[in-house]
């Protein structure tokens, strides 16, 4: 007999919260589950903590990665060995309410749904009684077609957090080949998975329930106000990787395609990029050059030009500059300046131009 739900827990540098997370999973009122914990080569005692629990509960499977692979690849390693009918992701600094899996599985079977969306209990760390608020995480009860689900995602009426979606394992198995396993992605990996699933894999029914079954810890790891330039380089690179991959998947596999959907997607991706490019504009010239060189060094030229070209082709975003904010205008200027830098760094500009024109029919 296969378990009803596989809980996937990627672990990296969350030693302080890991025991609470694992306790919440092994104490689920639904006993027929498996718990897959993947240690992403974390420092500290995370490995020892997991092994201690593994000796106490045979439902725990442990993968100890020899090198750090990033959140996305860590989750994928868990997906590959999961045996459950459905998959529930849990971040290792969060936790589940005791009845979570039981309620979720009951609703999935009652409505014969492929996906169940739950609502989180957001709280300000360390006090669970201090609720946090985010307008995207508004409790709601609904049953959705795939088209309606996409619409709610793009209009931010439903979130894109993987931990709040319990998904049929067969859908996850279809999703795995679409995900970039060779890229070290730590940012927007949830967005990449949810949008790839919504745009390219046929889903029968999605339900959303108002039950707040997931303890989501806010304000962890944001105490420092100083900029870590090396981490920021990775985040900028991830933004380019994820947004270009989503656009590529959308163009190739879209379940529900229309000019309006395309426009909403481009607007959505443009908006998530704004925050990181705002930080870029606060940097000095030397730091900005470091970012540009990092993009080139890590072979993101094609992805960047792909993303840049898609943005420039989206008339609703840039044709009427009067509707754009100052920062948005500066971001478009940045896109063009880095494109010029990338092209000048390559041996033959004409080859690049031909590739772009052929790929995008310019």
Automatic annotation (TrEMBL):
The keyword Glycoprotein does not apply. This is Glycosyltransferase involved in cell wall bisynthesis. It comes from the Bacteria. InterPro entries: Glyco_trans_2-like, Nucleotide-diphossugar_trans. Keywords: Transferase. Pfam families: Glycos_transf_2. PANTHER family: GLYCOSYLTRANSFERASE, UDP-GLCNAC:BETAGAL BETA-1,3-N-ACETYLGLUCOSAMINYLTRANSFERASE-LIKE PROTEIN 1. The lineage of its organism: Bacteria, Pseudomonadati, Spirochaetota, Spirochaetia, Brevinematales. Residues 6-171 form the Glycosyltransferase 2-like domain. One of its GO terms (molecular function) is hexosyltransferase activity.
């Amino acid at each position: 007999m296969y378990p009803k739900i596989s809980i996937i827990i990627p672990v990296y540098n969350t030693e302080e919260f890991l025991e609470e997370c694992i306790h919440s999973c092994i104490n689920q009122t639904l006993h027929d589950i498996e718990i897959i914990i993947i240690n992403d080569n974390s420092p500290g005692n995370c490995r020892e903590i997991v092994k201690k629990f593994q000796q106490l509960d045979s439902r725990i499977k442990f993968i100890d990665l020899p090198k750090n692979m990033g959140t996305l690849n860590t989750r994928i390693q868990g997906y590959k060995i999961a045996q459950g009918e459905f998959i529930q992701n849990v971040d290792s600094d969060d936790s589940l309410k005791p009845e979570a899996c039981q309620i979720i599985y009951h609703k999935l079977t009652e409505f014969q749904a492929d996906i169940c969306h739950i609502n989180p209990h957001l709280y300000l760390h360390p006090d669970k009684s201090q609720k946090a608020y985010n307008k995207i995480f508004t409790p709601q009860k609904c049953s959705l077609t795939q088209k309606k689900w996409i619409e709610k995602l793009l209009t931010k009426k439903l979130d894109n957090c993987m931990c709040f979606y319990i998904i049929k394992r067969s859908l996850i198995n279809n999703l795995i080949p679409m995900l970039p396993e060779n890229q070290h992605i730590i940012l927007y990996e949830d967005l990449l998975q949810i949008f790839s699933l919504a745009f390219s894999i046929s889903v029968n029914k999605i339900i959303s329930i108002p039950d707040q079954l997931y303890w989501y810890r806010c304000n962890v790891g944001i105490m420092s106000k100083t900029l870590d330039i090396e981490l920021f380089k990775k985040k900028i690179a991830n933004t380019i990787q994820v947004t270009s991959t989503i656009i590529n998947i959308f163009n190739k596999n879209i379940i529900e395609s229309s000019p309006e959907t395309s426009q909403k997607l481009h607007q959505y991706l443009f908006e998530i990029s704004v925050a990181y490019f705002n930080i870029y504009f606060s940097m000095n010239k030397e730091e900005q050059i470091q970012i540009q060189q990092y993009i080139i060094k890590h072979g993101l030229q094609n992805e960047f030009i792909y993303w840049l070209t898609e943005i420039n082709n989206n008339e609703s975003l840039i044709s009427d500059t009067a509707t754009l904010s100052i920062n948005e205008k500066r971001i478009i200027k940045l896109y063009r300046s880095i494109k010029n830098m990338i092209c000048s760094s390559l041996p033959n500009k004409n080859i690049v131009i031909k590739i772009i024109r052929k790929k995008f029919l310019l």
